[in-house]
Amino acid sequence: MWRYIELRTSSACFIACSGEFQLDDSRINNRLPIAKEGFPFIGISCGLTLILLFLGYSVFFVLGLLITFFIVYFFRDPERERPNIPNAVLTPADGRILEVKQIDHSSNPLGEPGLKISIFMSVFNVHVNRIPVGGTIEKIDYHAGKFFSANLDKASEQNENNRVTLRTPASQKIVIIQIAGLIARRIVCWVAAGDRVDRGQRFGLIRFGSRLELFLPEHTKITVEKGQKVIAGETIIGYLQ
Fold it and tell me: Can you give the residue range of the structural domain that contains 174?
């Protein structure tokens, strides 16, 4: 059974989700074009591909090469130019907007009426997640669950997920939920309660197709719509009022 574990030391924060320990600093400030979580997958794929080459299985070697290239592509972690606009809320994930809707307090983790924005990440999107607005992490809650396809509505309520609650300097509360999908069974988070975070900063990733939901205060001015493609850390999703 997978566990969610959080350990904090005086010099660094470690969060383990699905049985993995993660060192926050090297991930959040990654200067490589690939997320470090991808290195084991790339290494294994490269090794198997080379074995197929040495054994003379040319067809399987080409297949292994294609798989390796895809894994490298999936774990890409490009730098992003974040817009420096006051009160702007940046999209926390690459992908396509599934829905933008108003919700009441009973279905809102903010505990009050607000806005819910759902983003679907296919296997072709960058899967590194970014902080939508600067502030302080209040808490992180991991919930075990099922693994329905992330583009289905029931995935929002029933799938494995990790909730990040953030408080802005103006005391506005925002919740970001990382949701595992049909194939994605590893949610990784690099921040912990008490951490101060900046808009556009990396904070985690989900592997191989997934969903992310953002809950904002009721009077936020939304600038995206259903079906729109967005880029994490660059696309402005709205403005806090």
Answer: 4-29+83-239
At 148 the pLDDT is: 62
Q: Are residues 95 and 150 in the same domain?
A: yes
Whether residue 41 is found in the same domain as residue 25: no
Q: Tally the C-alpha atoms within 13 A of residue 62's C-alpha that lie toward its C-beta.
A: 2
The answer to whether 210 is a known catalytic residue is: yes
**Whole-angstrom distance, CA of residue 121 vs CA of residue 144:** 20
Same domain for 70 and 16, yes or no, is no
- pLDDT tens, position by position, 138-159: 999 988 866 666 566 665 666 7
**Which pair of structure tokens corresponds to residue 214?**
């953002």
Choosing from 18, 45, 118, 210, the catalytic residue is 210
- Match 């595992």 to its residue by tokens: 180
In this prediction the pTM is 0.82
The partner residues of 119 in beta bridges, in order of sequence, read: 97, 212
Are 111 and 120 spatial neighbours (Cβ–Cβ below 8 Å)?
A: no
Distance from CA of residue 45 to its chain's centroid?
A: 24
